């Protein structure tokens, strides 16, 4: 079976972008592939954070995975920091990562600018090496993510090839290893729709956890009233009718896409249904669709979080399964790089 890995940071609560860009797609994949879905708590400390909230946010995120439909009898669900090999491989990989590759990363440039360049932690720069380690440890075939992770995935691929060339093949065989390539080169799986869900208050910037205004995003745990209020106040325009793909109407494209994805309708069906509508009639329709889709998730979330030992058990099982795969890879890398075997 081909293998799939992906993860989300446990910062704040998950929003519609995380869901439509990533988690929703994980659900179908778990039926066909071997899947490992983790909560990337080690990535969450790359910007200042609250120590008192990290462990709760981690557990809440795991509960949301399950509430969204991740099935622990099919997928391994675990916490990144519970599998030590992630950090170990990261160190080994960082020795093979040219610093120029990291300086080029768009997310690093944006986040470090916002945080005031010189004071930002080194981990913000080396973040993509940890992400590469998350993926390469499991010899993953595919990585389902939103558009904003594409550059990190490209770096992961280049790094895998570089390490394979530097340390794999005949050189590794001479050291007593099996030879051949050390890492599988993974491919991103970016959905055709939903890969870039935009802000409710500005159709040109993406929906994000770090945007200061909560009005800009729909969180998966928002109540009915909060959703209704956010949709009522979201940015629209004064063109007649509703349409996809008009560059002058980014908000319209975004809201129609959200409606399409959340109802499971085709684009054509949405065009036919909505082209003659006003915002006044579309907004309640979108609100209802969101509430109907998110309500069952919220009910399951409440159930899962009411029994904390259930979740602890799933996470422990997930971590031990993951570690058994990850340890093999990291041991191979030590060997290929010439370390003395323990
Ligand atoms: P994170 O936590 O920022 O986002 C989690 C997932 O949600 C997607 N996403 C979006 N998709 C569509 N529209 C949006 N507005 C939107 N905002 C976020 C992201 O693309 C991502 O798929 N570095 C990663 C986490 C990570 C990871 C990994 C992912 C660490 N290691 C290994 C895959 C494999 C991150 O910060 O995602």
From TrEMBL:
EC number(s) given by UniProt: 6.1.1.2
Q: Which GO terms describe its molecular function?
A: ATP binding; transferase activity; tryptophan-tRNA ligase activity
> What is the reaction catalyzed?
tRNA(Trp) + L-tryptophan + ATP = L-tryptophyl-tRNA(Trp) + AMP + diphosphate + H(+)
Q: What is its main location?
A: mitochondrion
UniProt key word Oxidoreductase:
no
Keywords of the record, alphabetical order, are: Aminoacyl-tRNA synthetase, ATP-binding, Ligase, Nucleotide-binding, Protein biosynthesis, Transferase
**Location in the cell:** Mitochondrion
According to its record, what are the GO cellular component terms?
chloroplast; mitochondrion
Coiled coil, from the record: none
**TM region(s), chain numbering:** none
Q: Does Transferase count among this protein's keywords? A: yes
> Could you tell me the superkingdom of the organism this chain comes from?
Eukaryota
Q: Name one GO biological process term.
A: post-embryonic development
Q: Which family does it belong to?
A: Belongs to the class-I aminoacyl-tRNA synthetase family.
Q: What is this protein called?
A: tryptophan--tRNA ligase
> Which source organism?
Perilla frutescens var. hirtella (Perilla citriodora)
State which stretch of the full-length protein is shown.
72 to 413 of 413
């Amino acid at each position: 079976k081909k293998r799939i890995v992906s993860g989300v940071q446990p910062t704040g609560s998950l929003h519609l972008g995380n869901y439509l860009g990533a988690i929703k797609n994980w659900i179908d994949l778990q039926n066909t592939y071997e899947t490992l879905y983790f909560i990337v708590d080690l990535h969450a400390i790359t910007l200042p954070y609250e120590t008192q909230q990290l462990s709760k946010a981690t557990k809440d995120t795991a509960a949301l995975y399950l509430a969204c439909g991740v099935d622990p009898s099919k997928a391994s669900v675990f916490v990144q920091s519970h599998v030590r090999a992630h950090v170990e491989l990261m160190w080994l990989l960082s020795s093979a990562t040219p610093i120029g590759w990291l300086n080029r990363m768009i997310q690093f440039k944006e986040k470090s600018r916002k945080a005031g360049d010189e004071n930002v932690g080194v981990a913000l720069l080396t973040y993509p090496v940890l992400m590469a380690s998350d993926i390469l440890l499991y010899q993953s075939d595919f990585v389902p993510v939103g558009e904003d992770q594409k550059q990190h995935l490209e770096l992961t691929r280049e790094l895998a090839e570089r390490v394979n060339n530097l340390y794999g093949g005949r050189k590794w065989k001479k050291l007593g290893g099996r030879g051949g390539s050390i890492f599988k080169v993974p491919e991103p799986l970016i959905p055709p729709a939903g890969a870039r869900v935009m802000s409710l208050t500005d159709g040109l910037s993406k929906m994000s956890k770090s945007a200061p205004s909560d009005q800009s995003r729909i969180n998966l745990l928002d109540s009915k009233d909060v959703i209704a209020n956010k949709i009522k106040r979201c940015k629209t325009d004064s063109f007649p009718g509703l349409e996809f793909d008009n560059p002058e109407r980014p908000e319209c494209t975004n809201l129609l896409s959200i409606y399409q994805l959340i109802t499971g309708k085709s684009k054509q069906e949405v065009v036919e249904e909505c082209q003659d509508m006003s915002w006044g009639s579309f907004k309640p329709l979108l609100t209802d669709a969101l509430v109907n889709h998110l309500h069952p998730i919220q009910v399951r979330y409440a159930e899962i979080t009411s029994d904390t030992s259930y979740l602890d058990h799933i996470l422990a099982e997930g971590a031990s399964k993951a570690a058994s795969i990850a340890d093999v890879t990291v041991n191979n890398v030590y060997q290929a790089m010439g370390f003395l075997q323990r």
